[in-house]
Amino acid sequence: FLLAENEWPRVIRESGPFLGTAYLLLRILLVFWMGRMTLRSAAQDNVLPLMIYSACFQAIFSGQFGQPTELGFATFAGGLCLASMQIPLPQVVSTDENSFNRQLSAR
């Protein structure tokens, strides 16, 4: 309340210049990474992530996470955006059953 009303100055003043800046940089990189992934998904004829991203990027980028409802909306919408991208898992290709079992147990 006494530090700042906006999110970025509040984070810098609460966490300090080093950790606050690192946290804000993480949020910025997350927004740009999600934007790049949604554009890739849209190029593959899946526009749903792009529509969800257009609704949630502002909340992730500069939303006031001190308020629980804003944090919940940003987390839910960001997770929904990532889930709608349908990013395939890497496939394990092996002809030997023992090496396949070793790869599964290593995970």
What brief labels describe this structure?
107 residues, mainly alpha, 5 helices, 0% strand
Secondary-structure blueprint:
Layout: H1 7-15, H2 17-43, H3 48-62, H4 68-84, H5 97-106
Protein architecture, described:
- The protein has 107 residues and is an all-alpha fold.
- It is 73% helix and 0% strand.
- It has 5 helices and no strands.
- It has helices spanning 7-15, 17-43, 48-62, 68-84, 97-106.
Overall geometry: extended
Q: Any low-confidence stretches, pLDDT <50, length ≥5?
A: none
Question: What fraction of residues sit in β-strands?
Answer: under 5%
Q: What is the gyration radius calculated from CA atoms?
A: 19 Å
Mean pLDDT: 86
Order of helices and strands: HHHHH
Task: Report, as a whole number of angstroms, the end-to-end distance.
Answer: 45 Å
How many strands in all? 0
Instruction: Characterize the largest beta sheet: strand count, sense, and whether it forms a barrel.
Output: none
Broad structural category: mainly alpha
- Helical percent range? over 70%
How many distinct helices?
Answer: 5
